[in-house]
Amino acid sequence: MGLSAVLAQVAILAVPVLAAIVFHEVAHGAVAYALGDPTAARHGRLTLNPLPHVDPVGTILLPALLMLAPLFLGTRPFIFGWARPVPVDFRRLRHPRRDTVLVALAGVATNLLLAAASALVLAALPRAHSADSILHALRLMASASIQINCVLAVFNVLPIPPLDGGRVLAALLPAPAARVLAAVEGLGYVVLLLVLLDTDLLASLVHPLVMLFFGLGR
Q: 0.85 exceeded by the pTM?
């Protein structure tokens, strides 16, 4: 694949990736603010301006490496990344255990809403007669947005700390078990790597959800 084709694919993927991760993080902060914790607002993170949410590795380095991979390895273009986590002081929530669940699930719910909105856009757009048209690019972008938001929603709901699903699990467990889970949070990244690299669990969970939204898009 030539450089121009790769850059075109990156342009189509970059916008939905950036929107998905920024909206995800802002949703955490907005719900936390509504439930009594102003930490995200005080740090200027309740904004859709992507700059405050940029993570050097997850927003710049990793996507850049994935962008260059097709040029050197001949792989399919694929971009994935994450933003800086929005700061939340769970102790300041009015009902810490219940509200922690709501804050954690806010990002996942936002990604599902974005996937649904992208499906509706896809359904509203007429089919393009040319592969070089703007209409065709918009349809590809809407399709990419469905897949990206489904991946982020499913990935983050896995019950492994420090993911959102891990925070939900910690909030639902009895206090002693929750403390043990918090103590081993650092091992969560190792578990995630094993799950993602050695199994097809994520793909198996994402596929039915993606098909559901593509059905809506049709």
A: yes
* DSSP secondary structure string for all residues of 188-199: HHHHHHHHHHH-
170/182 Cα distance (integer angstroms): 7
Of 18, 7, 11, 1, residue with least CA distance to 137: 11
The pLDDT tens digits of the residues spanning 58-114 come to: 777 877 777 677 667 666 656 666 788 899 999 999 999 999 999 999 999 999 999
Q: Among residues 38, 20, 43, which one has the least CA distance to residue 109?
A: 20
What is the residue type of 152? Answer: L
| Residue among 166, 145, 171 nearest 155 (CA) | 166
> Which residue range is the domain that position 46 belongs to?
3-86+94-217
Give the pLDDT score at 67.
67
* Cα separation, 182 vs 212, whole angstroms: 34
Average model confidence (pLDDT) for the chain? 86
User: How far, in whole angstroms, is CA 44 from its chain's centroid?
Assistant: 20
What is the C-alpha separation between 191 and 197, in angstroms, rounded? 10
Helix residue spans in the chain (DSSP H): 3-34, 39-42, 62-73, 96-124, 134-157, 164-172, 175-183, 188-198, 201-217
Has 25 been annotated as catalytic? yes
List, in order, residues 6 or more apart from 44 with CB less than 8 Å away: 52
Between 180 and 131, the more confident residue is 180
Catalytic residue (one of 10, 18, 21, 25): 25
Number of structural domains, the chain? 1
